[in-house]
Amino acid sequence: MKDKTGRVIVLAFLAAAVSGQAFGLHQVVPNQRVHHATKHRSHLRRILWNPVFRPSRDSLLRQNEEIDRLELPRIQNQAELEQLIASQDLVPIVAGQTLRFDPRLDPDRRFCRPWTRDFLDDLSAAYYKQFHDQIQVNSAVRTVQVQKKLRRHNRNAAPEKGETASSHLAGITVDIQRRGMTRQQVAFVEQYMVPLKEQGLVEPEEERHQWVFHVAVSGRYADLRESKMLAGEQQDEAQNAPLGEPPSISVESNPQQ
Q: Is residue 166 part of a domain?
């Protein structure tokens, strides 16, 4: 009887051990699958994220070099911001058919330099013509105070001082939302900016964590726009001139002749 009882205890112990091993395997396998799936998704994201305008230290340096060339201040606080708005050194970005704001963007920060607004107007008009959709501005001018607060909870934010400081502090830069755009729309914006970057008129970055086009606009963009407008006016004048009459050409008098 005792032998039988002993055998029953041994068999029960072995059954428990086998069950425990099976249970352990059951716990490990899903974790391994999750681990492999996570690694696969991370690898896939690295493959898919292949921007035309990759962020870099050199890009930040170029943005700050343009600010220094234009002799623009880094706006320290709200008082300085309001002063630049009052003097119209900063102009309002106007929402409309082709452009909208992230509703979380403070109305006091929906301002930029005049040439930056020109760039936004031109890009949003071209984008709307192509897709009948708006671009969204997520950020524009910032003060040093705002940038300091931003860096407390966003480790990817640029510093508020130094040679790689955020170009938002001078009002030349806007962030345009990339999240939600189709591949075709992203490609359109990239190709739109490629020749402008080659001419040194914009310095764009495609931020990975914030999913925006960060675009610093050179003061030279105003010269490009003015030359295009002048060329358009001359073309209109030529088209509207009466038959048989050449368009009028303005020639400045030269006192040396």
A: yes
